[in-house]
Amino acid sequence: MERRAFLRAVGPAAVAGLAGCIGGSSGTQEYDVGMSARAYRPPQVEIEPGTTLTWLNTSKQGHTVTAYEGQLPEGAEFFASGDFASEQDAREAWGNSNRGTLFEGQSYEHTFEVEGEYPYFCIPHERGGMVGTVVVTSE
Fold it and tell me: How much is the pLDDT for 6?
């Protein structure tokens, strides 16, 4: 059973008990990956094809979610907060105007259809090691 369906089925008590298992809950907003000052929490998530993942900026720092385009599985769709067409577009937009930045409490979603590993990063905190991986598998 998908995590969100489970949480809907068992109610608010489960939210409190499972808040840190994959991501958690911030107020009333559910998410799968949170963002601390310099890290994604958790740094790796395993999901099934067709799952929509939600990132929520749970820190006071501005962050992005940007795929390493050249490392995506064959046939996979590029993803980035700000909905850019490429990694270069995302980097340039952030460098010129901070476009694509998620501020505290803002979220970004992407649906993963193709199996494989999807490495991603935060543009302003990449050098500090703010990277994550989504593993899409039907196993």
Answer: 37
